[in-house]
Amino acid sequence: MKLWDYIKDRMWFFLIAAVSLGLMLLFLTAFRVSGQLTATLCVIFGLFLIAEETAGFLRKKRFYDDMQGKLDGLDKKYLIHEMLKKPSFLDGQIMFDALCEANKSMCENVADYKRTADDFREFIEMWVHEIKLPVASLQLMAHNHSGELGEKFQEQLRRIDGYTDQVLYYARSENAEKDYIIKETPLRRTVANVALKNRESAQLCGASIETEGLDLSVMTDGKWLEFMLGQLMANSLKYTVEGREPVIRISAEELPDRVLLRFRDNGTGIPEADLPRIFDKSFTGENGRSYAKSTGMGLYIVRSLCERLGHSITASSVKGEYTEFTIAFAKNQFYKMI
Q1: Last residue of a domain, one of 47, 66, 85
Q2: Cα 125 to the chain's mean position, in Å?
Q3: Which of 6, 14, 130, 275 has a CA that sits 20 to 30 A from residue 253's CA?
């Protein structure tokens, strides 16, 4: 709190005090009071006014400066009332009580919203688990009657299964810390599992998968990493160039402080204007509208899971030539000591 701001706020009080002093001097003059007594009364009035305003200013300045300093240092601003002591002046007490009531109301509303969101997430997880049973049954039936139904029918079932997985992982992404287990994960085995799951889709597209330098292990959750690589592979198989054999190249490089896993394809590429936004929620871009129906959720979920796991993901691309995603795994001895 600045002195000049305080004075401007109290201007009305100083105006009333000046009028009162003027009336007092008028009456003292009218009753022929001596000049010495009048001067003494004026000095006493002035000293009282200065002392009262100085005490009030210092008391309020101490409280509001403390509140502002703590507010600037807080990440969650709504907790400010927990950091303050109830002030001794009336307007500060009213504001402090209002902050407490507002925070209490906000916490109750947030708790209601959280319960609703948790109930919805649990329902979605239950629904995904339930829907996977008929999908698995349809896949088995399609496999047993592959000559009648054809590969395209089975491919659509695999897409449905992939989309249900995406719903499940998205529902869990906000609370991924409750579901993942960080441990040493071999990259070669993880990539092999992803390639096996997408074998039929790759064969239908005529795609080949090349690997290099995958004899490394990283600290991550293998299940979540498989899902992320599966999303990247699904995008690569979706955005291929007609007349060009799709090639997916997965390689790893070990650096002193991290391990880089690169996922590169020779598909349609991403326009330069779309590249900064591909990880945004529901962003489809030019490719999503031109080549296939896209929800814009896959890469968003991948980035969210990377952030939860402590990894980072970046993308580079040239339209019509290639797209490359790089996942960086930090080398952290903390996990190994647990």
Answers
A1: 85
A2: 22
A3: 275
78 and 184 share a domain? no
Give kind and range of the element (H or E) at residue 330: strand 322-330
For 53, which DSSP code? H
Amino acid letter, 186: P
* 238 Cβ neighbours under 8 A, 6+ residues apart: 291, 292
Phi first, then psi, for residue 218 (nearest 5°) are -130, 160
Residue 184, H or E segment: strand 183-186
> Nearest Cα to 329, choosing from 275, 269, 258?
258
Residue 314 host element (H or E) = strand 312-318
For residue 119, being part of any structural domain is answered with no
Contact 302, 231 (CB under 8 A): yes
pLDDT score of 335: 46
List pLDDT tens digits, range 213-242: 999 999 998 888 998 998 899 888 888 888
The model's pLDDT over 299-324, given as tens digits with 9 standing for 90+, comes to 888 898 888 888 999 999 998 889 99
Q: Is 130 a domain residue?
A: no
Summarised one tens digit per residue, pLDDT across range 17-58 is 888 888 888 888 888 878 888 888 888 888 888 888 888 888
Q: Which domain holds residue 216?
A: 178-337
Total domains in the chain come to 2
Sequential DSSP letters for 218-284? EEE-HHHHHHHHHHHHHHHHHSPPTTS--EEEEEEEE-SSEEEEEEEE-SS---TTTGGGTTSTT--
Query: Is residue 148 one of the residues assigned to a domain?
Result: no
Domain boundary pick from 35, 60, 85:
85
**Co-location of 186 and 69 in the same domain:** no
Euclidean distance between CA atoms 68 and 40, whole angstroms:
41
Is the separation of the CB atoms in 261 and 326 below 8 Å?
A: yes
CATH number for the domain that contains residue 285: 3.30.565.10
